[in-house]
Write a structure and sequence with these properties.
alpha+beta; Lipocalin; eight-stranded antiparallel β-barrel; 6 helices; 10 strands; 30% helix
């Protein structure tokens, strides 16, 4: 079944146990922080010093590694995910929509799906899988190992299958990945997560 292939290939994303947009509050905090920095540099006397501080902070941001590099909001690279499904043996027509994950310094994580849609075929049948909603989790980092524990499952996967000209729609039960461990690499704007034999790529949202 196409849905089985999708679930298997999505195992790496499952460790985030989600995928979607949650970074709104975080983005607001970042905006406020930027505004504060801007207002401080508007003072004439310490302007040059503040500029040096800002440059240092930007330099630090560029070389963030490990857990600190995770902080922020990431969106799934749909093209890479499509290729991943195809490598797993799926006949995938398209992957569209948004799957966005955010990591917060307090050890919480969230993923939301906004019309995240996969269209696949299998032995003449076609399946369209659409995920919406948000999942919540906590996470911990040890070296390059990322462990995620799901705390709230709010996303919903709806599957519509066309078999022999007949259309069937069903809502798949939420797959709980209560504790999932994977290996991650984080460099600047690219986050790679490998878990249960699958590797997914996410890109930092700016």
């Amino acid at each position: 079944m196409p849905s089985v292939r999708v679930r298997s290939a999505a195992a790496a994303l499952a460790m985030l146990t989600m995928l979607a947009l949650t970074g709104c509050g975080e983005d607001e905090d970042q905006t406020q922080a930027s505004s504060t920095a801007g207002s401080s540099t508007s003072t004439a006397a310490p302007e040059e010093v503040d500029d040096e501080d800002d440059a240092a902070e930007n330099s630090d941001d560029e070389i963030l590694t490990g857990e600190a590099c995770l902080y922020g909001t990431w969106y799934l690279d749909n093209d890479v995910f499509k290729a991943l499904l195809e490598q797993a043996g799926g006949e995938v027509r398209s992957v569209t929509g948004w799957a966005i994950v955010s990591y917060h310094p307090d050890g919480t994580s969230a993923a939301a799906f906004d019309e995240w849609t996969t269209v696949a075929t299998h032995e003449g049948s076609m399946a369209t899988m659409v995920r919406n909603g948000e999942d919540l989790a906590t996470y911990s980092v040890s070296g390059d190992t990322l462990t995620t524990t799901e705390t709230a499952a709010g996303s919903v996967l709806t599957m519509t299958m066309l078999v022999n000209g007949q259309e069937m729609t069903m809502q798949a039960p939420h797959e709980e990945f209560s504790v999932t461990t994977g290996i991650f690499t984080c460099e600047a704007d690219t986050l790679t997560i490998s878990a249960q034999g699958a590797t997914s790529v996410l890109l930092r949202e700016h």
